[in-house]
Amino acid sequence: MAVRPTLRETDYLVPEDKMNSTAADSLRPYLKLLKGVSRSFYLTLRVLPASIRPPIGLAYLLARATDTIADTELVALGRRQAALGELQARILGQAKGRLDLTGWIEGGGQEPEKALLRRLEEILDRLEQSGAADRELIRQVLGIIISGQELDLTRFGDASARQIASLQTDSDLDDYTYRVAGCVGEFWTRVCLAHLFSEREVEPAWMLAQGIRFGKGLQLVNILRDIAADLRRGRCYLPLEELRKVELAPADLLSSASASRFNPLYQGYLAKAEAHLAAGWAYTNALPRRCLRVRLACAWPILIGTKTLEKLAEGEVLVPGRTIKVRRAEVRRIMVRSLVYYPWPSSWQRLYLIKNQKQKLISAMFPGKE
Fold this sequence. Notes:
Layout: H1 7-10, H2 22-27, H3 31-37, H4 39-47, H5 53-71, H6 77-91, H7 102-105, H8 111-118, H9 120-129, H10 132-156, E1 165-166, H11 170-195, H12 204-225, H13 227-231, E2 235-236, H14 240-245, H15 259-286, H16 292-314, H17 328-341, H18 345-350, H19 355-365
Parallel strand pairs: 1-2
Helix pairs in contact: 3-4, 4-16, 5-6, 5-9, 5-10, 6-10, 10-11, 11-12, 12-15, 12-16, 15-16, 16-17
């Protein structure tokens, strides 16, 4: 007989406005900012337990601010590098002077990011008011993320579609995905260990390792999805060493005529991303079952990521301007199904059977049939 969620599980689904939590209230003034800069992360944040929303939400806002500073190409490279260093010093508690972000706020760019930068001093103050343990975890992860952004500016600062710069090796790619996303999985795990469950309920070292792979997988999906757009900004995140093995240079990828040579290499990276997301799914299911909200917050990006991989495997990824993404209706369907199926573990597990896995299963059961 199916086991339905216990009261302890379902009480995580109480709407936020009915939660009596000082911790949740501390993030409330920034929910509109979060929704503006990333609707997908906003939905993830809203489902999290109230106790971990503030450190995770605050870390995300700071990371989004550093990313905006690093990526605003209307501001000169040297100024971006300097501002990123100044913001890092503020985050790490090594400086107190106000940041001059006039060039970002008054220049071009998206209004949600400008709104975020206008309130950055307030967000930095909120960091200082956080509990010591959470503040230290946020500082650690932001230090790693900023180091990845600084590397990006060094590698790609002068790059353009006429002069494409590339990562050199798979080790460079692995290091990059750790710095900008794998470390977030590590941070997420440490925050959960501090607030939601004890080390006796999980294997901390294993969880940290799988959390890192989880983050790397999500970032690799982004890289594989955005390859055509990144190339036109002068950025190639797929390693030059691997491209040369199939007799390609980064500039060759500007033409879809290179697709036949590029596709086997690209499929290999899709498989690597899928393997990382599989580690993320194992991570999700190793979380205590009572932690429904955290499991959902992990499951959604994994299931959306695997659906994205399906589309990328079938799409023309080198064609400029062609958007390959999961539609909002599909996202809603994923979210609803994950919640409906949660009481039945076998049904929940089947959520992760993406298209190519289903085809492999069918082939194994019925040889010769598609």
